[in-house]
Amino acid sequence: MIGMSSLRSELTGNHTLIETCTLRVDNYRSTTKTTTTLAETTTTPTGMTTTLAEMTTTLAETTTTLAETTTTLAENAAATKAYDMTLPMAVFCSTAGLVVLFFILTFRPKLRRLNLENDQRRAAQGASKNLLSTNRMEEKSLEQEMLDLSQLKKQKRQEFLNSTT
């Protein structure tokens, strides 16, 4: 890189300064527009030094812009990669949704029928339990009546035996 003090010492004319600046611009891989701006500078050495300082700033900004562009390209590649995954994910999710919807529509009537059958079975079991408990109560009451009748029969027999003797 050529510093400002060495540039002043090499000043022999406008032509040499423009060649040196062009070499410097080519080292930074800057645009043609920057080179054209250097060629259009004034012929006074003071004006040229100011322009060179400005151009150095422009080259630094250009280098920064290239770095930012590289970052942007990397970000775009990452975004493209992420976008490449969105289409398969969307297809997968929509297919899974359709499969779930198919199963719901297919098996829902069957599930309703099964639930109805289960409800009917539970009602029948409840009714049979009620009937069993009713039968047991009747059975107990019949046993009690039979006990009462057997006791009454024994009592009547005893009375009959007592009355005959």
Automatic annotation (TrEMBL):
Membrane-spanning residues: 89-107
Domain of life: Eukaryota
Keywords: Membrane, Transmembrane, Transmembrane helix
The name this protein goes by in its record: Uncharacterized protein
Organism: Romanomermis culicivorax
